[in-house]
């Protein structure tokens, strides 16, 4: 092929490939296409599956277009590559839908380029082309691969940007449906599929104290559902709070505060978040000690006893009514002595140590209480109501704690 104009020798600036080179490469395309398919699917088995799937036609056409468009560009430098770009963007979209990083597709592109370069070297030997022409071909080929990667990246980014907003909205709706009153809606499995979320048997709800830091969502695992832009933000963690989940939550919070609800069946998720929010309220009220992460399971009795504060006050007023005629200071001392006595079942000596008074004082007070309260201390139901009321008052801070002052 003496008509081919050879570019300058190595070491000199390399110009564009001669148009005649396209005529040598075009007959090689069918064999090159088969070779690239075979080697790419061997190196990346996932593409073997895709070539037998619903996108097989588009993938084959895209590979053919990527090869022929390169040769066309050599023959006609100004020729449009719109069809190639359309198919390559679909390549990128398929990678995003399949959940792969673009490294796999880029690796396949580069492997295809090496195979094409190997074929070009064979053609060069056949037609005795100069080494500088093959070098020019290699430079043009790998620059072309970078172009293919850039176009496919556009399709990949398109899916990610759309999916980010769409999936986020779908997952918020999913979270709302899970927290709705049972039974779970029939559309839930379909929504789970479109939101790429596997429906768990158990969940752990987490109540967050607003405002939530901007960085929090980025630190959560991919299967955690979140609704953060509401007055009472919350999370849904599939399954129990394993050590790994606990570490993930602690790292994501980074200064924010949360209450972890109980791990419950999916149908009871609303109960879990209700308890978690109640614990946050009790922290604010001082009934539960504050911490970055408070666990409901450590405060179940407190949540139960203070679940209805007005009712607790009514029960306490009813059960302690026989002490109402006493001076306030004396009444308080008797109530605190009674609380320690019924909650510990300890002898007078130990109750006295807790209160900081002599055992004989405790015995005197208990005789007074027995005289005034009567069957409230002997009847099992009345005694239980009295003990529950005293514990609740203590948690609310309405019963003095610690040793008595002289």
TrEMBL record:
<feature type="domain" description="PucR-like N-terminal">
    <location>
        <begin position="17"/>
        <end position="179"/>
    </location>
</feature>
<protein>
    <submittedName>
        <fullName>Helix-turn-helix domain-containing protein</fullName>
    </submittedName>
</protein>
<dbReference type="Pfam" id="PF13556">
    <property type="entry name" value="HTH_30"/>
</dbReference>
<dbReference type="InterPro" id="IPR058663">
    <property type="entry name" value="PucR-like_N"/>
</dbReference>
<dbReference type="InterPro" id="IPR042070">
    <property type="entry name" value="PucR_C-HTH_sf"/>
</dbReference>
<feature type="domain" description="PucR C-terminal helix-turn-helix">
    <location>
        <begin position="334"/>
        <end position="392"/>
    </location>
</feature>
<dbReference type="Pfam" id="PF25906">
    <property type="entry name" value="PucR-like_N"/>
</dbReference>
<dbReference type="InterPro" id="IPR051448">
    <property type="entry name" value="CdaR-like_regulators"/>
</dbReference>
<dbReference type="InterPro" id="IPR025736">
    <property type="entry name" value="PucR_C-HTH_dom"/>
</dbReference>
């Amino acid at each position: 092929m003496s008509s081919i104009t050879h570019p300058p020798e190595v070491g000199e600036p390399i110009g564009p490939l001669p148009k005649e080179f396209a005529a040598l490469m075009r007959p090689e395309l069918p064999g090159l296409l088969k070779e690239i398919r075979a080697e790419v699917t061997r190196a990346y088995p996932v593409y073997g599956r895709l070539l037998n799937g619903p996108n097989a036609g588009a993938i084959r056409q895209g590979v053919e277009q990527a090869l022929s468009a390169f040769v066309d560009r050599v023959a006609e430098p100004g020729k449009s590559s719109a069809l190639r770009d359309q198919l390559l963007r679909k390549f990128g979209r398929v990678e995003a839908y399949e959940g792969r990083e673009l490294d796999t597709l880029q690796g396949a592109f580069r492997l295809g380029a090496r195979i094409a370069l190997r074929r070009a070297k064979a053609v060069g030997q056949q037609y005795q082309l100069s080494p500088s022409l093959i070098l020019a071909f290699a430079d043009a080929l790998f620059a072309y691969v970078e172009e293919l990667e850039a176009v496919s990246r556009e399709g990949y980014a398109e899916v990610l940007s759309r999916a980010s907003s769409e999936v986020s909205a779908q997952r918020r709706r999913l979270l709302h449906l899970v927290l709705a009153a049972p039974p779970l809606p029939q559309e839930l499995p379909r929504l789970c599929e479109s939101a790429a979320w596997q429906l768990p048997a158990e969940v752990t709800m987490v109540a967050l104290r607003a405002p939530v830091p901007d960085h929090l969502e980025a630190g959560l695992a991919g299967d955690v559902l979140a609704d953060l832009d509401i007055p009472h933000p919350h999370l849904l963690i599939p399954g129990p709070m394993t050590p790994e989940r606990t570490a993930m939550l602690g790292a994501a919070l980074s200064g924010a505060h949360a209450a972890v609800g109980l791990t419950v069946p999916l149908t009871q998720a609303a109960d879990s978040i209700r308890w978690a929010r109640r614990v946050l309220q009790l922290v604010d009220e001082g009934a539960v000690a504050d911490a970055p992460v408070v666990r409901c399971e450590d405060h179940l009795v407190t949540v139960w006893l203070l679940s209805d504060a007005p009712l607790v006050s009514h029960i306490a007023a009813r059960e302690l009514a026989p002490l109402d005629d006493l001076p306030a200071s004396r009444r308080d001392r008797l109530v605190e002595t009674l609380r320690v006595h019924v909650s510990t079942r300890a002898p007078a000596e130990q109750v006295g140590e807790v209160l900081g008074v002599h055992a004989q004082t405790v015995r005197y007070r208990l005789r007074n209480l027995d005289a005034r309260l009567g069957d409230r201390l002997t009847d099992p139901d009345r005694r239980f109501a009295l003990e529950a009321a005293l514990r609740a008052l203590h948690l609310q801070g309405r019963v003095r704690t610690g040793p008595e002052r002289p």
